[in-house]
Input
Amino acid sequence: MKRPAAVSVAILALVLAGCTRQSAPQPRVSEPPVGKSSGTITVDGRQRTYLLYRPATARAGAPLVVVLHGAVGTGRQAEEAYGWDAEADKGGFLVAYPDGVNRTWNVSSDCCGVAARDKVDDVGFITRLVSTLPADPRRVYATGISNGAMFAYRLACDTDIFAAIAPVAGTMINDCPAPEPLSIIHIHGDKDPTIPYAGGPGRRSNDGKGRLPVKIDGPSVPSLIDTWRRTDNCAPPATTKEGVVTTSTATCPDGRAVELITIAGAGHQWPGSRPTPIAQRIFHLDPPSTAIDATPTIWQFLNAHPQH
Output
């Protein structure tokens, strides 16, 4: 869906449609400094924080990738762990690393943690953040892991500002009755115990009960991807296999694509990321797979799929 030309048009469209899908407001943007910077945005009375990386190679109107940390993570942790700054240097794009409230994102009323319990307006936060950055509106993308991957799916359902999303080790548990078509690349290990590849409750799920709700009980990953292929009206997928990596890609109208990369034997992690033995021991995390490097794989896909 193309972004409306004026706020009045957006408001009228929402009134006529009776929906709550969010588009980025008309931006008042300025060029950020080259290198690393930080910022704050007040949304729904809450001060929200983010980090931004602008490589020297990024020209005016560069693409933007929003990187969403997992539960217990932060924007800084995501920046340090997943290699997006180095990829931005090569690709000439902006990278934003927003912070969830108490290290969590509000995906649904049952997940996850403080953000869900307090009904934090994370969709409004990301929509506002995108509107403040001088990016090409046709090349705005979101990626994330775990809770961040689930939130990427919610953003795909509740906004129209992303050309593509790239969930890693995630699922979709939010309501999504009428999503707009967009491109998706999803990466998942078939031995993930936290968000099982076959669907159903993960090992950290508490069924949404208790002081900090964490209900992770999604569909199988292949069936989720099939749902989005139907949304995008895609052709039947073509599948290739190289070692433990199986890639299933469906081409769709208007240059879109929906791709699933399955890594046999891999658990709940960002493939190719920097190992963190202490965190892995404390939080019982799986070691990152070395079968692929997820970050350049994702960027190659995102860069090939602008919004139409």
